[in-house]
Specification:
Number of strands: 10
Radius of gyration: 16 Å
Structural class: alpha+beta
Order of helices and strands: EEEEHEEEEHEEH
Strand content: 25-35%
Shape: globular
Distance between the termini: 48 Å
Oligomer: single chain
Helix content: 10-25%
Length: about 170
């Protein structure tokens, strides 16, 4: 099966994460997309989030950094998700590096640049709600387990990072 390497950016701000309705896949997802040739995953996630949301963000590492200096390091994604995408001859897999990112400036003036519906979702909503309404139709559409679980953990990771910097 053909495999594509992708990234997703769980944008976290004020205890919530940003999701958008992906009409082609008919699911709620964080911003993201394919890694371009000669692009590393961090460059890709920052580019994809900027392109889709208009937000400049920074990565919050999902794992520890090591002290070695003989080679470079990239921040770890929070999760690596493998998903079958498409049907029939178009079936392939996305190997998605799911990063946590946070805005480097406020989000008040940000207008998403794509026409998909974006919604800020709180940790409590991720825990309690199994569906979200799609703005265009009003239909309640399921939140997938991976988006719910990684979203909850992304919010917790940013909360912990903010506590560290406040000390």
């Amino acid at each position: 099966m053909e495999r594509h390497f992708t990234v997703s950016g769980f944008v976290v701000d004020e205890g919530r994460t940003l999701l958008h309705w992906h009409p082609k896949l008919a699911i709620w997802l964080p911003p993201g997309g394919h890694i371009d040739p000669n692009e590393d995953p961090v460059q890709a996630v920052l580019r994809e989030v900027l392109e889709e949301t208009g937000m400049t963000t920074e990565v919050v590492p999902g794992g520890r950094s090591f002290s070695f200096t003989n080679v470079g390091q990239l921040p770890s994604p929070l999760s690596i998700i493998v998903a079958d995408v498409g049907e029939g001859d178009a079936m392939h897999q996305h190997i998605d590096l799911a990063y946590v990112v946070r805005p480097v400036a406020g989000v008040d003036d940000v207008e998403p640049e794509c026409d998909h519906g974006f919604v800020w979702v709180s940790e409590q909503q991720l825990r309690d709600c199994e569906t979200l309404p799609v703005a265009a139709t009003g239909a309640e559409t399921p939140l997938t387990d991976d988006v719910r679980e990684v979203g909850i953990e992304a919010i917790a990771l940013v909360r912990a990072a903010e506590r560290k910097t406040a000390v």
